[in-house]
């Protein structure tokens, strides 16, 4: 870790006054790790924990607002979340470990960095860590890397589970910056790596995630978060799927679907979701959805298994949602 | 604690547990002498080449930095390569840290920063830039296989395979056969406590070295030799070790560099490796085994052909006993095996829990299972039919072999009978259920060990042996042994371990400590008891009534009887009669009962039978181990609680071997890339079911003086195979590469 200065401002306006060498600190479960590994080298750390952003509240339209500083654990255990958005609770509980979820925040979850081995090892060239140096993950040990949304410059996955559910749920991210406030759809919040993989998301300098808004949904029991990983707990996903289906008299009125573990960002394909509109659940429909969402996937040296597994996981998750048997995150049996 | 039940064989809770959970147990990185400097190692970026320049100006400018030690400015060390040979005896040229500018492996230490604070040292270490001349390297195991060889000088514990019959002819003639290449990925030991050393220069110019090691005396000898010090200038202590699994068998570079720094700077030094740095030294070698097996139609094994290769470095010839386990354990008239090692430009692979057998037994038991299926036989019946009562490779009887009982009792506990033979016959919802089993076998070793017992005027018994408790429960079983041998409650016993100045003892490993140190403590306590009672009977000051009676010593009290009247008196009183402040005895335990049994005429093994249930979601590639039963035949069990804990721990590690653990070598750089606990997957709680460990009665008076065989490693052997074999029974698919991961 390198020396840095530290402040803990009491107001948003104060907090927004930063330089490009500032990093915002919330739970710290990712940033502190990265600083210890010499991946992040901020000159200044602005601790956001004195700002009041830890509310979880109902919005007038029936949706929910999650404060950026509410912890993952508090969010997943909140009665409003459990009642209205069990998909989100399930996705949060599929991630990390209880110890990490007790400290990690919702805002931090959106802004966590990739777990690419090569990003985490400062001895390796990495465009995401050191712009323009190259990508050592390509052609390397990349079982955990992305197959969708990759570029010549980067094949790192975005590791969050929570954001996969937020994408399926069409969340909005509320920001406060030097220029004022704005909102961005979660699906547009994270960026594809393209030629600038070091820019993970659309945050401008000094902008802070203040809260996440979730529209009201009527999935009932027709949702699931299904995560496949290399051990049954405390591992990032190889493939994960968040699904919510609005069902009415045996037909899917609206299908919401996002993938984790396979993309450089939470992966959504609206055309694939649209395929399900007003259709009854069927194997051929779900296979078509999987095919459509995985279109354009590219495998590298070690990650072909993701492409083999992904359609099966998508179809299984769709059936779990259609049948109203969401995946439990404590019982590891997959129905 | 109920003192009556503290004897050998009782499930006594760990006596060091309280000290550990309250932070009073001192580990290698915890002594905090005044003036302590922190050393942080800078590792090589490349796998092979030469350092052209080290730019340390920025590092030296960091406030608090005292020195940057490199091969240019390090103090004098031993001139000759042979001075760096450590106790493990791996042939070749031992790696000499900071010896010169040549790079032999990725992650090799190229500099050490010493600073007043850990933070300053780490920041400075990050600022050091090294220019390299890069030389071609190979870190790819498959490519290394083309250079496989048998070294002219082998490791001292290497058991060369012996051929019997004509295996290839028998293979050709047999009606039922299987063959295949089996593979194990490299693994890293990853004990919870990372390697660390604190070196304290004392006023009398000696060095006290707190090191994470399994052998304080081996480290003491190594340091004295490599740093050209005299032996009594170095004292090595390791009273507590937070796991090691073999990673502490050799003196690692942290202890050399910390001692070198102390020599250079004349100040106390601490060097602690980070978790990523734990992936820059020892690891379990990657292995392939080409196995061909053949049998008659009635399931009688006719031919075993095994060819195995493990990897080593370019500079040392690390070897394992990989290929011998099938030929030893199965009564097959024709067997042949061949072993070689393959060099790559990495650090030298090394012993990891049940070295050789963890790989060799598991991969062989996966092959045997394939043959049993090809013969149309139940896997258990096949093994009962073919296992050997003797060491079939050397044609030597065993000191004991309760494998049959283990197989039968394990099967009974598991409920093996009634298992439908065909794969894919058990199903629950979307999951296929599979039942698999395997045999485990491991050496029952013994190493001559000394111990000292001393009774002091406060009535306490002090036991000292430099054995290391690497987290296994050695303190506790030695206290139980002393309690029974001397006749004193366990709470009046103090055990001192892990100090190179104590009587001679081998490095902890190979599961020999319980048998060896246990015997030494037993003998020392018995000897002390005799000496004590004799002195008591002789002393002028002993009251007449006691001298003339038959005195007994139990539960820490002496009883004499005279004229039908019982007298009870304390150890303290007795010592005062003798007129000594303390009384002491030291003994060395040798193989066999008081050293009389020849260990050459009989072979000695621990056996086990492992049974496993898995549930497999075939479509998604998810394997859940839902039941594990391990029936272990390991002679006399000193403490069923700590012993079962050892077996369970090894079964967790073997589950990792079967399903999760793999160090991912990026051969382009020669570096293991998943060098942290987030990406090197040891099993989580969710991956581990309730584990049932049972110990089969096995009386063995020959294997070691107390009839003990040791249980630290047997749990590795067979467990991974039982899981792989259960996956076959669930799905009908054979996997020959471990670990078996989603998408395989």
Automatic annotation (TrEMBL), chain A:
Keyword vocabulary terms for this entry: FAD, Flavoprotein
Domain FAD-binding PCMH-type: 1-219
InterPro entries the UniProt entry points to: CO_DH_flav_C, CO_DH_flav_C_dom_sf, Diverse_Substr_Oxidored, FAD-bd_PCMH, FAD-bd_PCMH-like_sf, FAD-bd_PCMH_sub1, FAD-bd_PCMH_sub2, Mopterin_DH_FAD-bd
Signal peptide: none
GO molecular function, one term: oxidoreductase activity
Keyword check for Methyltransferase: no
Matches recorded under Pfam families: CO_deh_flav_C, FAD_binding_5
Top-level taxon of the source organism: Bacteria
Record-given protein name: Oxidoreductase
UniProtKB/TrEMBL annotation, chain B:
One GO MF term: oxidoreductase activity
Domain of life: Bacteria
Gene3D superfamilies the UniProt entry points to: Aldehyde oxidase/xanthine dehydrogenase, a/b hammerhead (3.90.1170.50), Aldehyde oxidase/xanthine dehydrogenase, molybdopterin binding domain (3.30.365.10)
InterPro entries in the record: Ald_Oxase/Xan_DH_a/b, Ald_Oxase/Xan_DH_a/b_sf, Ald_Oxase/xanthine_DH-like, AldOxase/xan_DH_MoCoBD1, AldOxase/xan_DH_MoCoBD2, AldOxase/xan_DH_Mopterin-bd_sf
One Pfam family hit: MoCoBD_1
Annotated source species: Acetobacter oeni
Name of the featured protein: Aldehyde oxidase
Domain Aldehyde oxidase/xanthine dehydrogenase a/b hammerhead: 22-136
């Amino acid at each position: 870790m390198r020396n840095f200065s530290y402040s803990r401002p009491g107001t948003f306006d104060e907090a927004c006054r930063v330089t490009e060498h500032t990093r915002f600190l919330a739970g710290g479960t990712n940033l502190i790790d990265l600083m210890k590994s010499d991946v992040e080298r901020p000159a200044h750390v602005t601790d956001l924990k004195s700002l009041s952003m830890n509310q979880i509240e109902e919005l007038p339209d029936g949706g929910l607002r999650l404060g950026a500083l509410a912890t993952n654990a508090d969010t997943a255990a909140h009665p409003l979340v459990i009642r209205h958005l069990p998909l989100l609770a399930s996705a949060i509980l599929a991630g990390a470990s209880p110890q990490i979820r007790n400290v990690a925040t919702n805002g931090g979850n959106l802004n966590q960095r990739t777990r690419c081995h090569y990003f985490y090892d400062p001895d390796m060239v990495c465009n995401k860590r050191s712009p323009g140096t190259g990508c050592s993950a390509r052609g390397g040990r990349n079982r955990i890397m992305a197959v969708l949304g990759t570029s010549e410059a980067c094949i790192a996955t975005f590791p969050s589970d929570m954001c996969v559910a937020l994408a399926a749920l069409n969340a909005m991210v509320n920001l406060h910056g030097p220029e004022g406030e704005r909102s961005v759809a979660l699906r547009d919040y994270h960026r594809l790596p393209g030629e600038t993989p070091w820019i993970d998301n659309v945050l401008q300098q000094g902008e802070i995630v203040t809260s996440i808004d979730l529209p009201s949904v009527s999935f009932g029991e027709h949702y699931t978060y299904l995560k496949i990983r290399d051990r049954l707990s405390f591992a990032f996903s190889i493939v994960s799927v968040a699904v919510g289906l609005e069902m009415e008299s045996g037909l899917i009125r609206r299908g919401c679907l996002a993938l984790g573990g396979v993309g450089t960002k939470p992966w959504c394909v609206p055309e694939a979701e649209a395929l399900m509109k007003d259709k009854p659940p069927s194997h051929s429909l779900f296979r078509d959805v999987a095919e459509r969402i995985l279109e354009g996937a590219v495998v590298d040296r070690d990650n072909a298994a993701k492409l083999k597994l992904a359609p099966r996981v998508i179809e299984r998750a769709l059936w779990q949602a259609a049948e109203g048997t969401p995946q439990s995150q404590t019982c590891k049996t997959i129905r | 604690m109920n003192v009556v039940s503290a004897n050998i064989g009782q499930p006594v809770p760990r006596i060091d547990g309280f000290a550990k959970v309250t932070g009073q147990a001192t580990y290698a990185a915890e002594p905090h002498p005044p003036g302590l400097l922190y050393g942080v190692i800078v590792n090589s970026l490349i796998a092979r080449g030469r350092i052209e320049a080290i730019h340390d100006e920025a590092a030296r400018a960091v406030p608090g930095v005292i020195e940057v030690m490199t091969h240019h400015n390090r103090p004098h060390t031993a001139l000759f390569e042979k001075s760096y040979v450590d106790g493990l005896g791996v042939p070749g040229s031992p790696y000499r840290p900071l010896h010169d500018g040549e790079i032999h492996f990725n992650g090799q230490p190229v500099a050490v920063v010493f600073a007043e604070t850990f933070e300053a040292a780490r920041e400075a270490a990050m600022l050091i830039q090294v220019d390299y001349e890069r030389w071609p390297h190979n870190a790819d195991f498959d490519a290394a296989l083309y250079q496989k060889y048998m070294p002219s000088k082998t490791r001292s514990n290497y058991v060369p395979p012996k051929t019997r019959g004509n295996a290839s002819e028998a293979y050709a003639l047999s009606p039922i056969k299987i063959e295949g290449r089996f593979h194990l990925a490299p693994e890293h030991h990853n004990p919870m406590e990372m390697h660390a050393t604190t070196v304290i220069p004392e006023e009398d110019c000696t060095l006290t070295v707190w090191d994470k090691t399994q052998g304080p005396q081996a480290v003491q000898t190594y340091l004295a030799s490599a740093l050209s010090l005299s032996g009594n200038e170095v004292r090595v202590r390791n009273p507590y070790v937070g796991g090691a699994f073999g990673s502490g068998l050799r003196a690692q570079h942290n202890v050399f560099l910390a001692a070198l720094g102390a020599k250079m700077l004349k100040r106390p030094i601490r060097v602690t490796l980070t978790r990523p740095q734990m992936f820059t030294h020892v690891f379990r070698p990657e292995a392939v085994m080409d196995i061909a097996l053949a049998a008659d139609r009635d399931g009688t094994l006719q031919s075993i052909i095994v060819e195995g290769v493990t990897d080593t470095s370019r500079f040392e010839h690390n070897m394992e006993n990989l290929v011998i386990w099938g030929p030893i354990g199965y009564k097959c008239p024709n067997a042949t095996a061949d072993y070689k090692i393959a060099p790559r430009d990495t650090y030298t692979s090394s012993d990891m829990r049940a070295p050789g057998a963890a790989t060799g037994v598991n991969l062989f038991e996966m092959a045997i299972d394939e043959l049993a299926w090809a013969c149309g036989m139940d896997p258990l019946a096949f093994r009962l039919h073919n296992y050997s009562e003797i060491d079939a490779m050397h044609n030597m009887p065993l000191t004991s072999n309760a494998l049959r009982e283990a197989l039968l009792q394990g099967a009974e506990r598991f409920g093996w009978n009634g298992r439908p033979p065909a794969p894919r016959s058990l199903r629950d919802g979307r999951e296929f259920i599979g039942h698999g089993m395997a045999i485990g076998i491991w050496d029952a070793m013994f190493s001559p060990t000394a111990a000292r017992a001393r009774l002091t005027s406060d009535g306490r018994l002090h036991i000292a042996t430099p054995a290391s408790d690497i987290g296994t429960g050695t303190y506790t079983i030695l206290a139980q042994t002393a309690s029974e041998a001397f006749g004193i409650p366990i709470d009046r016993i103090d055990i001192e371990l892990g100090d190179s100045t104590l009587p001679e003892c081998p490095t902890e490993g190979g599961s020999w400590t319980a048998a060896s140190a246990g015997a030494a403590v037993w003998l020392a306590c018995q000897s002390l008891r005799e000496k004590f009672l004799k002195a008591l009977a002789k002393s002028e000051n002993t009251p007449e009534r006691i001298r003339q009676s038959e005195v007994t010593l139990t539960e820490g009290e002496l009883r004499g009887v005279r004229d039908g009247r019982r007298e009870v008196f304390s150890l303290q009183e007795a010592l005062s009669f003798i007129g000594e402040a303390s009384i002491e005895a030291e003994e060395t335990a040798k193989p066999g009962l008081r050293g009389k049994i020849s260990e050459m005429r009989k072979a000695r093994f621990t056996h086990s039978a492992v049974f496993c249930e898995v549930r497999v979601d075939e479509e998604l590639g998810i394997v859940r181990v839902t039941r594990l039963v391990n029936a272990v035949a390991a002679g006399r069990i000193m403490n069923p609680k700590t012993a079962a804990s050892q077996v369970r721990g090894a079964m967790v590690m073997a589950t990792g071997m079967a399903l999760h653990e793999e160090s991912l070598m990026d051969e382009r750089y020669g570096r293991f890339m998943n060098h942290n606990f987030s990406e090197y997957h040891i099993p989580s709680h969710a991956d581990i079911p309730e584990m049932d460990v049972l110990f089969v009665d096995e009386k063995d008076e020959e294997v070691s003086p107390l009839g003990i065989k040791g249980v630290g490693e047997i749990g590795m052997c067979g467990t991974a195979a039982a899981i792989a074999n259960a996956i076959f029974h669930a799905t009908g698919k054979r996997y020959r590469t471990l670990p078996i991961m989603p998408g395989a």
